[in-house]
Automatic annotation (TrEMBL):
Protein name, UniProt field: G-protein coupled receptors family 1 profile domain-containing protein
InterPro entries: CCR1-9-like (IPR050119), GPCR_Rhodpsn (IPR000276), GPCR_Rhodpsn_7TM (IPR017452)
Main location: membrane
Pfam short name (any one): 7tm_1
UniProt entry tagged with the keyword Transmembrane: yes
Length: 363
């Protein structure tokens, strides 16, 4: 969001070579607006599909709490991507913020809120999918309790994300920064700490954000999806006809974890190295410090890309969700209704037989 540079622990003369940033001033706004367009349309379609779905669930087959998590994930991403035109203009203006203190605080808060809410939604979604497999294998039917648990977890998720994002709302503000005397939107620790203590506030908030918003959720997702992959593998190992479904599901599982990690890892890694160098805990040569500062905006942009990839990874790869979306958009004919009276007993008898082989489309 902001351009790092200046201050204790970093090499002098960072403001020299301003011409080296010319490409960033032109390229980054284009990338931000591309993420804005894709994220706005993709997440908008996901929210439209989830909230227009009937009580029976997306695409038939009953209500799934996974759809609720997908909808909330899209909502978090959508709340963030609407701020990207501001950050695009901020970068195009050479990191000058002309939009005032209120928008600086609010847009910064939404960025951090999205990071926490997305990570928590994905963690809950991975846990829910693991439970879906376990419950399917044991033929458990706890629909009402799962709905209540989903609503409770969503409330706790948003409350925790909102609280953890509060430092951005309280401490972010506009400041005049030399030598260009530009107005930047950056953290201001002077309200809570002396100049000697500011670096410790920076370290605690930055490393704490990385631990709670990336490391812990990624660890939980990895554990849940490994357990899920093991359960699916054990289930399908004797069902040759379902081998293709098993491979497809495991590929989706691997993509979910890998894309989240790849999009956010460079951002958190560079931020961690920068903070450790700022605190004097890591002795980095000047060339390495300069490289970290120059790569940071691109790592931030890569992290933002995750918000426009989520609709495809967490929704459109789900066959039932995709079918429901296409029907709502008028791109697929509605599924014809079957006479329930004459087939009710047959469907009931076949449910248990087909329940386990259809696991790949339920998760």
């Amino acid at each position: 969001m902001e351009r790092w540079g200046g201050g204790g622990g970093l090499c002098p003369g960072e403001e020299e070579g301003e011409a080296d940033w010319e490409l960033s001033y032109s390229l980054l706004p284009v990338l931000y607006m591309l993420v804005f367009v894709l994220g706005l349309s993709g997440n908008g379609i996901v929210i439209f599909t989830v909230w227009r779905a009937p009580a029976g669930g997306t695409g038939g087959g009953g209500w799934r709490s996974a759809d609720t998590y997908i909808g909330n994930l899209a909502l978090a991403d959508l709340a963030f991507v609407v701020t990207l035109p501001l950050w695009a203009a901020y970068t195009a203006l050479r990191f000058h913020w002309p939009f005032g203190s209120v928008l600086c605080k609010l847009s910064s808060y939404l960025v951090l809120l999205n990071m926490f809410a997305s990570a928590f939604c994905l963690s809950c979604l991975s846990f829910e999918r693991y439970l879906a497999v376990v419950h399917s294998l044991s033929r458990a039917r706890l629909l009402r309790s799962r709905r209540a648990a989903t609503l409770l977890s969503l409330g706790a998720l948003w409350l925790l994300a909102g609280l953890l994002a509060l430092p951005a709302l309280l401490l972010r503000d506009t400041q005049r920064r030399p030598p260009l005397n530009a107005t930047v939107c950056d953290m201001d620790y002077s309200r809570v700490a002396s100049p000697e203590q500011e670096r410790y506030w920076l370290g605690a908030l930055s490393l704490g954000t990385t631990a709670l918003g990336f490391v812990l959720p990624l660890l939980l997702m990895t554990v849940f999806y490994c357990c899920l992959g093991g359960a699916v593998t054990r289930h399908f190992q004797h069902l040759k006809k379902e081998e293709q479904k098993r491979r497809r599901l495991l590929r989706i599982i691997a993509a979910l974890v890998a894309v989240f990690a790849l999009c956010w890892l460079p951002f958190h890694l560079l931020k961690g190295l920068y903070v450790l160098g700022w605190l004097g805990l890591l002795d980095l040569p000047c060339a390495a410090q300069d490289l970290i500062v120059r790569l940071h905006p691109y790592a931030t942009c890569l992290a933002y890309v995750n918000s426009c990839l989520n609709p495809f990874l967490y929704a459109f790869l789900d066959l039932r969700f995709r079918a429901r979306c296409l029907r709502l958009l008028g791109l697929r004919r509605p599924r014809p209704r079957r006479p329930s009276a004459s087939l009710s007993s047959t469907a009931s008898a076949q449910t248990q037989k087909s329940e386990l082989p259809s696991l790949a489309t339920k998760v």
